[in-house]
Design goal:
Dihydrodipicolinate Reductase, domain 2, Rossmann fold, alpha/beta, 2 domains, eight-stranded mixed beta sheet, six-stranded parallel beta sheet, single chain, 16 strands, 322 residues, 9 helices
């Protein structure tokens, strides 16, 4: 038995395959668990040295597996995470942590009582460009933050079990909460259902923070082109994180200024400054962070509590859409 292999990836489909690849390349993948026999057969051919299983309960009884990575449908997050924590496993669960706030809070309590790591897959927190943007904000390089907006737009992937708010917006909510470092005092939202009667294809969420920052999040899977953009407007400078751009254009800072001439505000536009960022895969950074937290016992950047804070915003926004 290889003592370094201690991670099981549960749910190895659309997104799970990326987690399988990363944990395998990191040399820690012990087992792949999925309900699809054909998928398991393909994985066994591709990774002959890795165990495959369709029985989650049996997998949780294996003492050599210390970390469970969940990439199952969102409605299964709570059940599967709870089972793993009760079995004494460290848990990484893709966003959202759960679909109901009391369930997420229960998972946090279980992780604490069983002394297990609970980490949520808010991937953008591990993106080098966002980490650099966050550093700029914390150092005061942008000055006082006025407002933030985020667009996450594309054509597909269209879900049947969750709306665009729950599918796309957790990433943006997580980033905005990370930049503001406080919970919003007000949340409102509106949505449009076009393809399916009860599922919003487009949503706009507005957030107000006690410190005065305002933010909005526009998400859609019914859009003619792909755009993933976060804009932070500050008193001194403005920053734009565009994940769909090439690495040398992912983070731009604008030193625009507004001068008052005879009582008239006059904008002075500056050329954008390209900010160099480390070229590393966000998912690989996220996977490494989970492994580091297991090894050291330190609290993850996107721990269960952070997952709960994101879920609170989602729940408040969803109330407005219904």
């Amino acid at each position: 038995m290889d003592e370094h292999k201690h991670i099981a990836v549960v749910g190895a489909g659309y997104w799970g395959k990326n987690l399988v690849r990363n944990y395998y390349e990191l040399g820690v993948l012990q087992s792949i668990c999925d309900s699809s026999a054909s998928a398991l057969s393909e994985y066994k051919n591709k990774y002959p040295d890795i165990e495959v299983s369709d029985n989650y309960e049996v997998l949780l009884k294996q003492s050599n597996i210390t970390g469970v990575v969940l990439s199952v449908p969102a409605e299964m997050h709570y059940k599967f995470a709870k089972q793993a924590l009760l079995a004494g496993k460290h848990v990484f669960v893709e966003k959202p942590l759960a679909l109901k706030l009391p369930q997420a809070e229960e998972l946090v309590r279980l992780a604490e009582s069983h002394k297990c790591i609970l980490m949520v897959g808010h991937l953008m927190q591990y993106h080098p460009a966002f980490r650099e943007l966050k550093r700029f904000v914390e150092l005061g390089e942008l000055g006082k933050i006025y407002y933030i907006y985020s667009n996450r737009l594309s054509l597909g992937k269209i879900r049947r079990e969750e709306n665009s708010l729950w599918s796309f917006a957790p990433h943006d909510i997580s980033m905005i909460l990370g930049l503001c470092r406080e919970e919003p005092s007000g949340v409102t939202a509106e949505g449009g259902n076009y393809l399916q009667k009860s599922i919003a294809d487009v949503t706009i969420t507005h957030m107000e923070f006690p410190g005065g920052i305002k933010a909005h999040i526009f998400v859609s899977w019914l859009h003619p082109f792909k755009e993933q953009k976060l804009v932070v407007v500050g008193e001194k400078q403005m920053a734009v994180f565009s994940d769909t751009e090439d690495w040398d254009k992912k983070l731009l800072v604008y030193s625009h200024s507004i001068n008052w001439n005879n009582g008239v505000p006059t904008p002075y536009k500056a050329e954008p400054k390209l900010i160099a960022v480390e070229q590393s895969e966000p998912l690989r950074n996220e996977c490494r962070h989970f492994l580091d937290c297991i090894a050291s016992g330190k609290k993850p950047l996107t721990d269960g509590q952070e997952g709960v804070r994101v879920l609170k915003v989602l729940a408040r926004a969803q109330e407005c859409i219904i």
